[in-house]
């Protein structure tokens, strides 16, 4: 899908490389498991079915999990007005618009392509941001749809689940399958565990690296489209500060969707090592990148709108 969002060749390259590497990892993974466990084919078939369901129904799954609902222009005229204006500016199809009745200030985009995309904001986000700040957040989410990284991150994130499913299946099939647990059985189980753990670790790091870069790409694209990087910087600062006031229980409930959120619900990146495991760059890194965009546009970098 072509749009007026700034094209990011690095993001496209990273998505292609990540999916290629993940494909290699999982081909090797399946081959190794077929050698170790003949019954693993059933698990792979089941996992493939789950992946297909996740791909085709990712928008419905995400909305259900986040208690979101599709809203009409009559119900949310301001929200629809902002999305209409941004889509017209970006020359892209308008996605469906949804609202989640959660106090957690956040937003996300989901869907396998532009024709089946949904942009969802929480009521907590609407209550906390000014119109220009909300516009910046919506532009950020729309850029994910335009860049097609929503579908890529959906598929990539789900692949890591396969390793865990195989481990559980192998363990319980050996535990309750009636086989005598001799040294050979124990060795097979250990090999399966080791291979699965390695696959999960490699997938985890690849997905996190892609996720962090796609957030920076979306920040830049949104700032360039709206020509208001300071509004997006203000929204980031405000949301990050207010997140600390949200009950930990609510944050943990939403943590599974961190990779899709505008800002992480829990687990802010800190030290360099911790940053490797984060779905988002640090707030400081995102503000620095927006300041660079502001300098390109010839305006203030971190001021309020």
From TrEMBL:
<keyword id="KW-0645">Protease</keyword>
<feature type="transmembrane region" description="Helical">
    <location>
        <begin position="12"/>
        <end position="34"/>
    </location>
</feature>
<feature type="binding site">
    <location>
        <position position="215"/>
    </location>
    <ligand>
        <name>Zn(2+)</name>
    </ligand>
</feature>
<keyword id="KW-0862">Zinc</keyword>
<feature type="transmembrane region" description="Helical">
    <location>
        <begin position="150"/>
        <end position="171"/>
    </location>
</feature>
<keyword id="KW-0812">Transmembrane</keyword>
<keyword id="KW-1003">Cell membrane</keyword>
<keyword id="KW-0378">Hydrolase</keyword>
<keyword id="KW-1133">Transmembrane helix</keyword>
<comment type="similarity">
    <text>Belongs to the peptidase M48B family.</text>
</comment>
<dbReference type="GO" id="GO:0008237">
    <property type="term" value="F:metallopeptidase activity"/>
</dbReference>
<dbReference type="InterPro" id="IPR022919">
    <property type="entry name" value="Pept_M48_protease_HtpX"/>
</dbReference>
<dbReference type="InterPro" id="IPR050083">
    <property type="entry name" value="HtpX_protease"/>
</dbReference>
<feature type="binding site">
    <location>
        <position position="140"/>
    </location>
    <ligand>
        <name>Zn(2+)</name>
    </ligand>
</feature>
<feature type="domain" description="Peptidase M48">
    <location>
        <begin position="74"/>
        <end position="292"/>
    </location>
</feature>
<dbReference type="Pfam" id="PF01435">
    <property type="entry name" value="Peptidase_M48"/>
</dbReference>
<feature type="binding site">
    <location>
        <position position="144"/>
    </location>
    <ligand>
        <name>Zn(2+)</name>
    </ligand>
</feature>
<dbReference type="InterPro" id="IPR001915">
    <property type="entry name" value="Peptidase_M48"/>
</dbReference>
<keyword id="KW-0482">Metalloprotease</keyword>
<feature type="transmembrane region" description="Helical">
    <location>
        <begin position="40"/>
        <end position="57"/>
    </location>
</feature>
<feature type="transmembrane region" description="Helical">
    <location>
        <begin position="186"/>
        <end position="207"/>
    </location>
</feature>
<keyword id="KW-0479">Metal-binding</keyword>
<feature type="active site">
    <location>
        <position position="141"/>
    </location>
</feature>
<protein>
    <recommendedName>
        <fullName>Protease HtpX homolog</fullName>
        <ecNumber>3.4.24.-</ecNumber>
    </recommendedName>
</protein>
<keyword id="KW-0472">Membrane</keyword>
